[in-house]
Backbone:
């Protein structure tokens, strides 16, 4: 399996537009490096990956905060699910949904909180991959290197047949068949290895501009060389050379990709198995298997994909690992009560901005307080009781006695109910 290099930009909605913006960023990085005499696409990929992942740090923090609260909420949610297990009537389903929603409100989070973060990140990551995969399409400085040769080739009669025969003779599986447009020729030229550039010079129809082909080959090779490897080549191709240095360097790409991704997964929060909960234990087991398989798959793909993609995977995994390490330290220092208070304040501010009428807020507060009490009555165990007590205190203090807030109204309703129960 080999990766296909394309100069054509992605036409996928949203992803295509994001990729264009990222292309501008990478092109700017290349120009800055060029100003100091560095023309290296491998280094551009590393810097580019670091910048993009740094920009996504706030999203990562939000997602990890949700994960931390989710781990605390999970026992309560599971008790609600167990309470209504096997009950399929509409009334039971509605009650289960209400009580589950009350737990989320209790901790000041949204049930779709994690999904929102992922929905924002995924298009960015896909676009990032597109730029790394199709560098000439998005980085004008690279595309322009091929302009001279590309123009000359377009002027040759029957150039499509000549190049397509060249592709077939050299078994170039990483490019599509050349058509009569410049982008397809750039696809072809960007995929050429040093030896194939020399073979291109020997084509009789191209003899009139063989010097320009040689100059372009030298320039693009300088840009693509990272250490002793060419970012457009596959590591597997170097193993066939017999050179010990090249083989070691080529093997380092997939091995580092595997190692860095394993490190990143180790630093990620892991779901704990729970006694008597076969479904959750099965899910945790599946995740563990996936966490083992995915880095191995990454290493496998690195053998057959261009070195440039391997560099991107390694750089991104290293950045994510550092991010995760710092986020873990930050969250470990954060008190759960403070986190709940922060979420409650944000939730109240959002509801105030939505302009919900007072009566509607009161009804919501009444329902939340009622359901929260139900959930708390069903809890057992010293740890859960203590945790519930802490969260309850945070819930009471979340509004900081701010008059008219939803939390203040919820507390008033609950106090009223408790006084009635005592009578």
Residues:
């Amino acid at each position: 399996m080999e990766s296909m290099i394309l100069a054509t930009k992605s036409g996928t909605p949203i992803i295509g537009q994001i990729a264009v913006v990222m292309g501008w960023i990478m092109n700017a990085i290349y120009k800055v490096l060029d100003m100091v005499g560095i023309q290296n696409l491998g280094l551009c990929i590393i810097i580019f990956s670091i910048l993009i992942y740094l920009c996504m740090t706030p999203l990562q923090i939000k997602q990890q905060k949700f994960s931390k609260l989710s781990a605390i909420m999970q026992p309560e949610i599971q008790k609600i699910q167990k309470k209504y297990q096997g009950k399929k009537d509409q009334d039971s389903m509605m009650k289960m949904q209400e009580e589950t929603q009350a737990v989320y409100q209790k901790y000041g989070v949204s049930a779709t909180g994690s999904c929102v973060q992922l929905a924002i990140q995924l298009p960015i990551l896909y676009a990032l991959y597109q730029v790394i995969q199709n560098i000439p399409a998005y980085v004008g400085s690279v595309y322009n290197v091929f302009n001279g040769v590309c123009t000359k080739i377009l002027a040759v009669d029957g150039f499509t047949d000549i190049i397509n025969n060249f592709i077939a003779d050299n078994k170039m599986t990483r490019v599509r068949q050349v058509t009569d447009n410049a982008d397809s020729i750039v696809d072809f030229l960007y995929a050429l290895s040093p030896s194939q550039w020399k073979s291109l010079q020997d084509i009789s129809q191209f003899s009139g501009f063989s010097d320009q082909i040689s100059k372009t080959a030298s320039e693009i090779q300088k840009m693509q060389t990272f250490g002793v490897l060419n970012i457009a080549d596959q590591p597997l191709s170097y193993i066939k050379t017999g050179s010990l240095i090249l083989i070691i360097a080529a093997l380092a790409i997939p091995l580092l990709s595997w190692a860095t991704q394993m490190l990143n997964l180790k630093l990620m929060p892991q779901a704990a198995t729970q006694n008597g909960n076969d479904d959750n234990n099965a899910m945790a087991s599946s995740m563990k298997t996936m966490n083992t398989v995915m880095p191995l798959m990454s290493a496998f793909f690195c053998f057959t994909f261009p070195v440039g993609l391997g560099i991107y995977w390694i750089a991104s995994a290293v950045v994510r690992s550092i991010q995760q390490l710092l986020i873990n330290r930050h969250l470990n220092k954060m008190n759960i009560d403070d986190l709940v208070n922060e979420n409650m304040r944000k939730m109240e501010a959002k509801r105030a901005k939505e302009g919900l009428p007072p009566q509607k807020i009161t009804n919501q507060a009444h329902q939340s307080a009622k359901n929260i009490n139900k959930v708390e009555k069903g809890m057992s165990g010293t740890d859960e009781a203590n945790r519930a007590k802490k969260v309850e205190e945070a819930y009471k203090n979340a509004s900081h006695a701010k008059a008219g807030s939803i939390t203040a109204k919820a507390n008033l309703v609950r106090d009223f109910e408790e006084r009635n129960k005592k009578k």
User: Anything to note?
Assistant: The CA atoms of residues 27 and 141 lie 7 Å apart. The beta strands are 225-226, 229-230.
